[in-house]
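quick q for whoever's on today - can somebody do inverse folding on this one?? i tried earlier but teh output was garbage lol. tokens:
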């Protein structure tokens, strides 16, 4: 483990030199009062400039990032984030605007907002979008509030149940619960797909709607989606599309063609904007015509070439975030869409699915594929159960060995319906050589599981830390140096 900065340097070393004081000196006690002064000097590192520069430069290189290596984290769509989008979102005309600036002085920003809404509506086949929600899960909550408001507006107060399949992303039932619904989980069929009998049994007069992602988190396209949509609608419910997996369907099909009423997108996946530390998220919500009135306000309209904030609809669920959403992220997504155009977006999906199928084909000789027929959409879920049973090597061991080999591991132990799950999503932005090297690495690991399992149990050996108690590391990180 590298040294902390507190453990470096020596007494009296400095990385700075103050200029000579050119104002009269004043004692701190006379300003703050004697009682408010420290009794002992603070414990601060004392280092020379070169030590400080090396320390922080080394720290900055400890993080694994998309810009440093392959990141096949299933369900997260860790695609490359084009740098030109960063430049565009930092243009002074955008970045230095005040959110309360007058409409007349904000025509460019409003045009961008309007253009992005139109583009998303057309790509996803929805009537309108709200760009306010700040993340995928926030979009889910917004969409569910719209579903609740729709039923309320019809005086249909008994619809309190949201149906989710057992392969759904964890945020789906969580968002539904926060929106005040009761959750009914239905089991997937033996093929990992929606089981229409289970759906029929779950539907009733209390059904508010069903939440689904298609392709599912197993990377499988729900072949019965149109039938399922008809069944939910016939029971009086609405269909919610978790669009976080839209990377697989861009310009191929749309949620509205599948029968969905409400959609959220993760711009920080499908539309190439950074995740987490690289910038905040954004989870726009789109709806079909009959739900437009319930969208959060403000929406931006355009008349005779002039952009303006539309009047609040009396049925609107209100605001779900301050001002207009994560504006800088919206600019990046719009730039991404304009740069690619419809043809480029279509190619995104084609390549994302082709890349996933290449890896699937290379890896299935060594790993189990519990669901699917050997073909997948943008991602797939393998199982490390065979390695566990035959060699005592867990999926966690293999993930740690991948870290040692310089890769970010896939998502592991999710979805819950696959034992020892490894969920792999390469995305369209990776070259064939990168995919081939990654497949070689995982196949080597499968061999090592047979020949030298202890190597996998002990991995990673070349990182600052080896195995952590992951829950404690996430919940109670030690971020303060104690003398
Ligand atoms: C299928 C799916 N739905 C919803 C979400 C939630 O998105 P967010 O993390 O932006 O809240 C994710 C995130 O990974 C996801 O993969």
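ok took a stab at it. sequence:
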């Amino acid at each position: 483990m590298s040294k902390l900065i507190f453990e470096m340097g020596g007494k009296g070393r400095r990385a700075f030199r103050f200029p000579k004081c050119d104002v009269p000196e004043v004692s701190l006690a006379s300003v703050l009062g004697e009682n408010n002064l420290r009794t002992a000097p603070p414990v601060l590192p004392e280092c020379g400039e070169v030590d400080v520069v090396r320390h922080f430069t080394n720290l900055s290189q400890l993080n694994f990032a998309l810009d440093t290596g392959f990141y096949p984290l299933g369900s997260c769509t860790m695609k490359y984030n084009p740098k030109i989008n960063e430049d565009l979102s930092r243009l002074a005309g955008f970045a230095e605007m005040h959110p309360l600036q007058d409409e007349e002085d904000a025509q460019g920003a409003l045009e961008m907002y309007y253009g992005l809404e139109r583009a998303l509506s057309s790509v996803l086949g929805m009537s309108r979008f709200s760009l306010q929600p700040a993340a995928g899960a926030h979009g889910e909550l917004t969409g569910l509030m719209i579903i609740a408001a729709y039923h309320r507006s019809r005086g249909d107060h008994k619809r309190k149940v949201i149906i989710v399949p057992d392969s759904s992303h964890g945020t789906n039932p969580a968002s539904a619960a926060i929106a005040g619904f009761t959750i009914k989980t239905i089991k997937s069929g033996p093929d990992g797909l929606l089981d229409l009998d289970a759906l029929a049994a779950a539907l009733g007069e209390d059904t508010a709607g069903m939440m689904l992602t298609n392709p599912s988190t197993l990377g499988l396209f729900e072949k019965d989606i149109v039938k399922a949509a008809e069944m939910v609608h016939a029971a009086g419910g609405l269909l919610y599309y978790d669009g976080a997996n839209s990377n697989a369907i861009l310009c191929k099909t749309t949620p509205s063609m599948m029968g969905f009423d409400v959609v959220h997108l993760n711009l920080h996946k499908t539309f190439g904007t950074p995740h987490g530390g690289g910038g905040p998220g954004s989870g726009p919500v789109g709806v079909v015509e009959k739900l437009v009135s319930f969208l959060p306000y403000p929406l931006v309209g355009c008349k005779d070439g002039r952009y303006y904030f539309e009047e609040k609809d009396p049925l609107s669920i209100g605001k779900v975030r301050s001002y207009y959403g994560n504006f800088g992220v919206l600019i990046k997504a719009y730039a991404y869409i304009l740069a690619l155009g419809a043809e480029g977006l279509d190619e995104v999906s084609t390549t994302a699915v082709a890349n996933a199928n290449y890896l699937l084909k290379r890896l299935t000789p060594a790993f189990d594929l519990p669901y699917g027929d050997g073909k997948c959409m943008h991602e797939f879920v393998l199982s490390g159960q065979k390695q566990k049973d035959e060699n005592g090597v867990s999926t966690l061991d293999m993930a740690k060995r991948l870290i040692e080999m310089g890769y970010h591991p896939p998502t592991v132990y999710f979805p819950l319906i696959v034992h020892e799950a490894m969920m792999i999503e390469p995305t369209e932005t990776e070259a064939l050589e990168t995919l081939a090297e990654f497949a070689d690495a995982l196949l080597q690991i499968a061999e090592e599981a047979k020949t030298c399992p202890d190597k996998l149990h002990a991995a990673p050996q070349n990182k600052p830390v080896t195995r952590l108690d992951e829950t404690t590391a996430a919940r109670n990180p030690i971020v303060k140096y104690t003398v």
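fwiw The first strand starts at residue 128 and ends at 130. also Residues 75-76, 135-137, 169, 171, 213, 217, 242, 244-245, 266, 281, 283 surround pyridoxal-5'-phosphate (CB under 6 Å). so keep that in mind when u check it
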